[in-house]
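Class prep. Protein, please:
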Amino acid sequence: MTRPRIALFLGILCISIFPVIVRMNLTSGLISAFYRMAIATAILLPFALYKNKLKLENVKMLLPIMVCGVLFASDIAVWNISIQNSSATQATLLTNLSPIWVGIFSFVFLSYRPRKSFWIGTLIALIGMTVFVGIDVILELKLDVAFFLGILSGLLYALYILVSKRLLEQLEVITFITYSMIFSTVFLFIINVVFGEQFFGFSDKAWVSLVIQGVVCQLIAWLLISYATQNMRATRVSLSLLSQAIFATILAAVFVNEKITVVQMVGSIIILAGIATTFYEKRKPAIQ
């Protein structure tokens, strides 16, 4: 299980760059989400065609793959809208409730009972997340549209992880990711048209940022995370994704000169302790 864990770690590093780029405000959140998908799809699709990876044994698989693509695209769109109407900190906090939803959905719909270590790890990680974002953010939460959009983002993220886990048990990673991103791209294109976003006229710096988002934050990141999802428990993957908040903060300190506070460092340690707890498994005593 070493390779999937390494893939998950590297994938999380790649997606952690995304919030830093978004904070630069080079393009709108929705248009960056579209180009993130479109650029990644434009690169992967020819490769998948060349390697003959688009064949499906059952055409009916396209429907759940489409659902996955729409779920992922919706999560990005809703998360960005939530940020525009509140703050990145609040939106991140609410979206990061997704491990709880993964655990609940796994139990209710998949008849899978998450291990005790998962719930303990989730509790520890959420305490860490509370420390990380600050108690003031928790106290200032308002039951407004942005609040419910943040909750919705977490739900969509959780559903994507669970549905993709099921599909990856039957499909190759490249096959799944290619089809999923095609559906995501089409969906986000429609969303951007509805919201009246402009697709061109950006600065050179903005285009460079969009390419980085497409290649690093989407293509490389989700190939790695999907491989990890294919070979690890969905609950463990979802909780591990919480660490992206830590890496995003470190990258923001490096690239946009944001300061890392002592409180954030303490919160980071608690989050990592929670994630590590889910990887703890009791060893069965050896038979004498």
The mean pLDDT is 80. The chain has 14 helices and no strands. The CA atoms of residues 226 and 250 lie 24 Å apart.
